[in-house]
Amino acid sequence: MDDHNTPAAQALGLIADRFPHALGSILGGSAAQGRARPTSDLDVAVLLPSGETSRREVVRHDGRLAELFLHTLEDVPEHFARDRALRRGTVLFLYDQGLPLADPYGHVARTREQARTVLAAGPPPLTPAEWERGRYVLTCFMDDLTDTAPTERYEQLALADATLREAAHLLLAHRGGWTGIGKWLPRRLLNADAIRGEALLNGHRAVAEHADPAPLATAAEQVLDAVGGPMREGYTQRWSA
């Protein structure tokens, strides 16, 4: 591949074109890990001077989509704290695992260290109420999945997705791991618990390919057993006045 067409070169061209005043930048996501496809977008974090507006922005540069994570140095701690509260760590992982593109003042290196400190602390633990609600929601989806007739494929597939998502959320919280969405969910799941994670993913595939909910229901129940068991009668959710 022509060096001018590499993801890093394209990201540098984008930054030079749109943010020549940037204090530093980093390329993240699949591109930084050598897993990008020709149609993959670029995930780029850009540090901006004071007075700029921190934001998330999607642009197209030289025919390629790029998702930009723009932060001023002053805003970085606030955005890292919000990222941790969401338990996904999207921007945190971008700085931790990304490829520095430009760092003339050392700001990217220092921001990476901040991100790694937050990641090392892990996501916040679930509250007792969040654990109970998670168990209840997963139990409901699991029960509905097993009760749905194989001929009701739309409902079965929707319930399989919901069961996988809720089981993954609980398992990752149980293991103290970061969650994810889209392609990052299976990656984080397998990284946190290869055995239970693979059982959930294989169970989900069994529903998709064979209309068989049993493996996924079994895998979900194993997750529930690890976090206190299924939650049915006795569950209470208090609403604020």
How does this model look, in words?
The chain has two domains: 3-121, Beta Polymerase, domain 2 (2-Layer Sandwich); 128-226. It is 54% helix and 13% strand. The chain has ten helices and five strands. The protein has a five-stranded mixed sheet, with helices on both faces. The mean pLDDT is 93.
What are the key terms here?
alpha+beta, 2 domains, 241 residues, 5-stranded mixed sheet, 5 strands, elongated, 10 helices, Beta Polymerase, domain 2
How many distinct domains?
Answer: 2
Counted by DSSP, the helix tally is 10
Mean pLDDT: 93
Q: Catalogue the unreliable spans.
A: none
The radius of gyration computed from the alpha-carbon positions, rounded to a whole number of angstroms, is: 21 Å
Query: Remind me, CATH topology of the largest domain?
Result: Beta Polymerase, domain 2
The CATH homologous superfamily of the largest domain: Beta Polymerase, domain 2
Number of separate strands: 5
**How much helix is in the residues?**
40-55%
Order of helices and strands: HEHEEEHHEHHHHHH
- In what range is the share of β-strand residues? 5-15%
Structural shape = elongated
Main sheet characteristics: 5 strands, mixed
CATH architecture descriptor text of the largest domain: 2-Layer Sandwich
Instruction: Provide the spatial order of strands within the biggest beta sheet.
Output: 3-4-2-1-5
Structural class category: alpha+beta
CATH top level assignment of the largest domain = Alpha Beta
Q: Termini separation (Å)?
A: 61 Å
